[in-house]
Amino acid sequence: MQEQFFGKTVLNSKVRTFSDDELTQDAFLGGKLTLRQPRIGYRAGVDPVFLAASVPAKPGDRVLELGCGAGPALLCLGARVSGLHLWGVERQPDYSELARWNAESNGLDAVIETNDLRDLSAELRQMSFDHVIANPPYYDPSQRVPAQDSGKEAGLSIETPLADWIKAAAKRTAPRGTVTFIHRAEKLPELISGFAKYLGSVEVKPFVPRTGRDAGLVLIRGRKEGRAPFRLHAPIVLHQGRQHMTDGDDYRPEIRAILRHGGALSF
């Protein structure tokens, strides 16, 4: 999987090479998982950890992540729930190869396909999954200054419409299986519209940074062939107090349990 060549870490002959100082090793879930990520490029924050924590997977389930990047959400889920069959799709070859390396180095069995979600392999098109997850890019490229790093820009800017993400996820979901996305709150109308077209039992969990603040993120879940009415859950509050008062993080205990100890996030 990995070769050393004149001080470079060569992950795949078809992708760029990274020098040792271009990659970092970052601990997730309190060190239960260690991922290599580009120092300059798209780097995972807490969003994929929350996404992974929200999936109601059980051992033996099959899980697919669309746009898996270097693997933070998919592998956090694999570290939290043992015995899962993990698949990821990532169109950027350098990031998909990092995801393969990260899975192997953490002792997780994951199949990572380098492809666009709108043009999946014949093998994947014949499969169905108990859970499909995604953390699509958040930002309209016409409304922001592009990142200088192409990998970071691809991870942040919307190029593939959300409707295509939702359609691809729903098509790969088994009956009674779930689709879960995390996204910016301002995209909620578009998310609800798309989910309602292909899925039932749609429910939304907002995240607010502090009590009294507006939601910044939302988790949205739908179930294939679900029939329950739409449900808007009470928001989950991330930080203690109404403002940041001390050095270090001030996450609420239940949030710290998710981020540091691999706890589950219930809808």
Automatic annotation (TrEMBL):
Record keyword S-adenosyl-L-methionine present: yes
Superkingdom of origin: Bacteria
Record's keyword terms, sorted: Methyltransferase, S-adenosyl-L-methionine, Transferase
InterPro entries cross-referenced by the UniProt entry: DNA_methylase_N6_adenine_CS (IPR002052), SAM-dependent_MTases_sf (IPR029063), Small_mtfrase_dom (IPR007848), tRNA_Adenine-N(6)_MTase (IPR050210)
Molecular-function GO term, any one: S-adenosylmethionine-dependent methyltransferase activity
GO BP, sorted A to Z: methylation
Domain (Methyltransferase small): residue spans on this chain: 50-143
The keyword Ribonucleoprotein belongs to this UniProt entry's keyword annotation: no
UniProt-recorded name of the protein: tRNA1(Val) A37 N6-methylase TrmN6
Organism of derivation: Thalassococcus halodurans
Taxonomic lineage from the root: Bacteria, Pseudomonadati, Pseudomonadota, Alphaproteobacteria, Rhodobacterales
